[in-house]
Design brief:
alpha/beta, 6-stranded parallel β-sheet, 9 helices, 51% helix, 14% strand
C-alpha cells in the first residue's frame, strides 16, 4: 500500500525550537530555586510532546505541593508564551526540513501534529514561512494520539498510508496507537526499531521508497 499522507511534529522536527522551550520552562521554575528548576526541566525533557499545561499541573503538584487552578494554569501559559516568543522567531529550521516540504508539497497531503497550542503553532510556522506547505496544522488540546487519528480521518486514508515524523516518545506512541509508519528524528529516539536520522536530509529518499511501494 503506497504512502498517501505525511504528518510532522514541529518542535525538534521542523524547527530547532526545543532549546528555547526548555529555557522557558527553566525561567518559570527559577523563582522557586535551583532544584525546582532542574527537576522541572528534566520532567519537560522526559515528556516531549506532552501539553505544557499538563507540565504546569505536574510542577504545582510535585514541586509546590498543591493543585493548580485554572487561573494559575492560564498565568503560566501566558508567561511561558512570552518567554518563548522571541526565541522561537529566531530559531533555525531543522536541516533538510524545508527541502522535504518543497519536495512533497502538492504531491502528498502534509499535516502538523503538535503538542503545542494550535493557534501558537500556526503563528510560529507562518513567521518561518512554513505554514503555507500544510493542508492542516493541529495542536493541543487534545492529546497527540487523538490528533493523529483525527488527521487520518480528515484526510480519508488508512493508517498504513500515513507516515508520522517525530522526535519524542509521544510521537512514536501516537504513531503506534494509530497504526501509521514512523520516522524518528534526533538523539532521543536513536536506536529504535524504526528508520531514524539526526535531521531530515535523508527523509525524502525514505518517503520515495514508501510512496512507490
Amino acid at each position: 500500500m503506497s504512502l498517501r499522507c505525511l504528518v510532522f511534529d514541529c518542535d525538534g522536527v521542523l524547527l530547532d525550537s526545543v532549546p528555547a522551550k526548555a529555557e522557558a520552562f527553566a525561567r518559570l521554575a527559577r523563582p522557586y530555586g535551583k532544584d525546582a528548576e532542574k527537576r522541572f526541566v528534566q520532567f519537560h525533557e522526559d515528556h516531549g510532546g506532552v501539553s505544557r499545561y499538563e507540565k504546569f499541573a505536574w510542577f504545582y503538584k510535585e514541586i509546590l505541593g498543591k493543585t493548580i487552578t485554572p487561573e494559575d494554569s492560564q498565568t503560566c501559559g501566558d508567561t511561558f508564551k512570552a518567554y518563548c516568543r522571541e526565541e522561537l522567531r529566531r530559531c533555525q529550521e531543522i536541516k533538510g526540513a524545508r527541502a522535504v516540504l518543497e519536495d512533497w508539497y502538492g504531491r502528498l497531503p502534509l499535516y502538523v501534529c503538535s503538542g503545542a497550542p494550535e493557534e501558537e503553532q500556526r503563528e510560529i510556522l507562518a513567521e518561518h514561512d512554513l505554514a503555507r506547505f500544510f493542508d492542516g496544522i493541529f495542536g493541543s488540546p487534545p492529546k497527540k494520539a487523538i490528533l493523529l487519528q483525527n488527521i487520518l480521518a480528515q484526510a480519508g486514508i488508512s493508517p498504513k498510508e500515513a507516515l508520522m515524523i517525530g522526535d519524542a516518545s509521544t510521537d512514536l506512541d501516537a504513531a503506534r496507537a494509530a497504526g501509521t509508519h514512523f520516522y524518528g528524528v534526533g538523539q532521543l529516539l536513536r536506536g529504535g526499531d524504526y528508520p531514524w536520522a539526526m535531521d531530515l536530509t535523508e527523509l525524502s529518499a525514505y518517503i520515495s521508497v514508501l510512496h512507490n511501494t
